[in-house]
Amino acid sequence: MSFAADNARRLRASIHVIGSILESEKPPEATVASERLWKNALVEGARSARALAAASQRQVRTLQEEPPLCFRFVEQMYHKYGLKHVILILILLFYTFFGAFLFLIIEGPTQNRLKDTWTQNIAKNRSVFIGSELFNNSNYLVYIKGKTTKRIEAHLSESFRQYESQLEIRWSDQKMEWNYWNAILFAGTVCTTIGYGHIYPMTPLGRMLTMVYALCGIPLVLLVLQDLGKLLTVGMKYPWYQFKRLIRRLLKIFTKQSMEEMAAIEYRERNELSVFDVPLYAAVGLILVWIWLCSTIISYWGINWTFLEACYFFFISLSTIGLGDLVPNNPNLLLMMFGFILIGLSLVSMVLNLLQNKMRKTYEAGQHKESIAHGSILDATTLGILQVTLNFRSHINYSVYP
């Protein structure tokens, strides 16, 4: 790099000397010193230019050399065999699992401490209440005299505990407790912006981590969903084209068409795939079919939801509203449903990708029409004026210089 810079510096110096000689008001006298200066400047400039060109050629050959075999293999796997999609998914999974581990480390001990304190307070208040009821009620004096107080107290304590469990009294208003699977689910709902509210951080450090985690996770999820949406768009293109082609062939069988029409249809089908896109209504219908399929599976899984409630849950989730009014209590079932939701979000991304392509083509068609109209106006105005001006100048030149 320093050698090329030195040659370039010498070349600029030689050009400067030659230029100063050529731009002088008086031509240099034909002396031995001036001739030597002129000759040295030309020779030095030519040598520097030759060296700079050789260095540039070496750099071009270095860039044009084939990469090593391992790099070519990685490049082929990355672009040809879709390794980039797998890498994005693996990065998202690692980010989710690592985030769940951090959330569990921060929120787990706090949850256990608060839960133990709440349990101790409930047991203490229960014992105080049972003892006050026993000794302040004259109907229980015969049992106290019979030394059966402990047995009655244990019986009442167990009865109160069962009553509290039936009331579903918890130490917090969270619907789930912190464990690793629930932490994974929480990390996923944060990154996808669904946020059911079934579990949330309670410590200041956990809340700060949630904000930082969302700032990095939401763009990552959007990138993965966009990539999967494009992949599904390309993947649906050929099957839908074949289905449409099959319908055309069936119509040709049951309708009378001439040989020219059949040949024209065949030629159009062969050249249609390159510009063919999946219709928007077909993609939306695929999302509705996916919601129906997932709702059917969930309604027959054993959960106390109707088919309408399951459809409502999946629609609210795919629209990333996440009201949290319907959330399964079983974390394993919720994880499976979250997997269904991720696939559904990829389908939604596919619909958005198709809509974007349709809007882009509409815009390009409008720009093309506008350019055609603008070109016709330009032909009628500007180009005509330029042509008249050129004809006028040629006429003036011919008149002045016959």
Automatic annotation (TrEMBL):
Residues 174-233, 287-360 form the Potassium channel domain. InterPro entries: 2pore_dom_K_chnl, K_chnl_dom. One of its GO terms (biological process) is stabilization of membrane potential. Belongs to the two pore domain potassium channel (TC 1.A.1.8) family. PANTHER family: POTASSIUM CHANNEL DOMAIN-CONTAINING PROTEIN, POTASSIUM CHANNEL, SUBFAMILY K. The keyword Membrane applies. It is a multi-pass membrane protein. GO terms for cellular component: plasma membrane. It comes from the Eukaryota. Keywords: Ion channel, Ion transport, Membrane, Transmembrane, Transmembrane helix, Transport. GO terms for molecular function: outward rectifier potassium channel activity; potassium ion leak channel activity. It is found in: Membrane. Signal peptide: none annotated. Pfam families: Ion_trans_2. This is Potassium channel domain-containing protein. Its main location: membrane. The chain crosses the membrane at residues 86-106, 180-199, 211-229, 280-303, 310-327, 333-355.
